[in-house]
Amino acid sequence: MRGVDKRRRLTAAAAQVLHRQGVERTTIADIAKTADVPVGNVYYYFKTKDELVQAALSEHEGSLAELTAELDKLPDPLDRLKALVEAWVSQRDTAARYGCPTGTLAAELDKRADGTLDREVGRVIRVLLDWAEDQFRALGLPDPGDLAVTLVAGYQGMSLLTNALRDPDIMTREGDRLIRWLDTLTSGT
Amino acid sequence: MRGVDKRRRLTAAAAQVLHRQGVERTTIADIAKTADVPVGNVYYYFKTKDELVQAALSEHEGSLAELTAELDKLPDPLDRLKALVEAWVSQRDTAARYGCPTGTLAAELDKRADGTLDREVGRVIRVLLDWAEDQFRALGLPDPGDLAVTLVAGYQGMSLLTNALRDPDIMTREGDRLIRWLDTLTSGT
DNA sequence: GTCTATATTTGGATAGAC
DNA sequence: GTCTATCCAAATATAGAC
């Protein structure tokens, strides 16, 4: 089953290279080279470039599922949310260089006239929003959906500024602010 | 002076089309067509595509300068900041379709290995941050720089989610939240 | 399943007539 | 200053040998 192995390598390479270079500036050859697969052979596994983008998106969705599964082991929903923020902040150097993998992909795909892939990326973002909403609801807070949007928007905003200004410290400071915000929400005053 | 006119039309067209389609998916022909200028003639005014991107960026910077100049007419810095948020929210339909002009441009340009244009876009974002910082400082608040980052990150975050989910209502709700946040900052408790 | 060679298209950029 | 025709490079995708 060497084929399965190559498919996985191509998927992993696509996720990494597309994040770093963006969709439009990445060539099939770039991905093939990173995966150490000859260019022509790529088409045996993925018929078009868009299928590689789709595979990369699924890879990011998988990482997100892994992360939330890990967080779900924590008993307290508030701790889960705080740990999520900490996980984001721990990625600050990558964010400073390349931004949030899903966020930058969404921004790029949303520019397309063809609305197939950008509906997909919207769905992945919704998975994160839904998970966060569940935590806020478990805490008994009002408007858990709005709170989830505020949290994720906070993350996307700090990622973009961190990236645009190439300054990981923004991520640290804004992460601290989000943690404090989560505390005030639940301090019941 | 027909030349000046064409240059301006090309600049305006570049700003609009690059915002809608993104840099990489926009061809010189797209911009030329929108500006109603023959393709070959474009190169008389702009030697490369990157010069057109630079021109579009300057156009956005000009719009920002116009907006802040207008806001500066308001006597109270808090009113200025609130009016800024309201100006953002009023653009919610455009944001839902194409995102924030400067933010999406920054995300795209930051993917480049060549760091010329992405330093430029960072500078434009800094202009906005500096203006906001001035307002927070005028209000006598501590850490005005951090507050400016939080405000602009809030804008970029809500723009990205609004765009990715194609939902202008997110912009309305998050805008309201930013206004309430500005109020709590200054309510002096 | 793998890989090389190549067909095809697109788009940035230029030459040169007017 | 204006515009057409075209060059050329890059990149997606395919053909077909192994």
From TrEMBL, chains A, B:
Residues 27-46 bind DNA. Pfam families: TetR_C_13, TetR_N. The keyword DNA-binding applies. Keywords: DNA-binding, Transcription, Transcription regulation. The keyword Transcription regulation applies. Residues 4-64 form the HTH tetR-type domain. This is TetR/AcrR family transcriptional regulator. It comes from Actinoallomurus vinaceus.
